[in-house]
């Protein structure tokens, strides 16, 4: 870890503007869109990005042998790809994207931590807030110098299908679902062609959007985050695991909980995996 490690999981646009160009600082543009939107994160990156930023594509930094969308890659694969993106073992990494709240960037934040790199922070408000403040951006793609990145897998930050099934019986961990209420209760179709709609039995719905200021795209204040979890009946003193549709929105909840000093692993397969399992029960609106 660098001697100037991040103190919180997010940094402000003011902080990043003041530290641009520092030797151990790496910036990653994690902009991602579902194919149905006809938008492309890499194209947007090429159009304009933060100074020095490289593009981190969660569909490419993924296990391509897994039929589920953008599941975690192997440890050595993540290490190789981060090294090629110019991120070294001792570097500070700042991640951002273009979506309000920064869900794809939150997934990247979580991935770094799963692979042992704690020195990572999300840019609060992302590209939109940065651009709204008329801060510098550039168009030329960045060709980083390759660096050596050492990954060390931390299974404590990840949950598997088998662990989630076991948790159904034990109730040891509270399951927080980050999807919107319509997707959670099964009344609204997902952008993924899921055969089943609804949620895991006993899961609690905390839509990720409730934690974001729609004006700035930044996270709401920690007190407001805490109040939102409390309103949903979440006990912050008990273990928590987060889930969503395909493992992109769940890390937003985990990041928000980290701001409150709580560690919450992510169920990577999320609904995309759960709804395919024949022995995984489904709850939905009456």
TrEMBL record:
- Molecular function per GO: thiosulfate-cyanide sulfurtransferase activity
Q: Which residues form the Rhodanese domain?
A: 21-139, 169-283
InterPro entries to which the protein is assigned, alphabetical:
Rhodanese-like_dom, Rhodanese-like_dom_sf, Thiosulphate_STrfase_CS, TST/MPST-like
| Pfam assignment, any one | Rhodanese
Top-level lineage group: Bacteria
Q: Which UniProt keywords apply?
A: Repeat, Transferase
PANTHER family (alphabetical): SULFURTRANSFERASE (PTHR11364:SF27), THIOSULFATE SULFERTANSFERASE (PTHR11364)
- Name of the molecule in the record: Sulfurtransferase
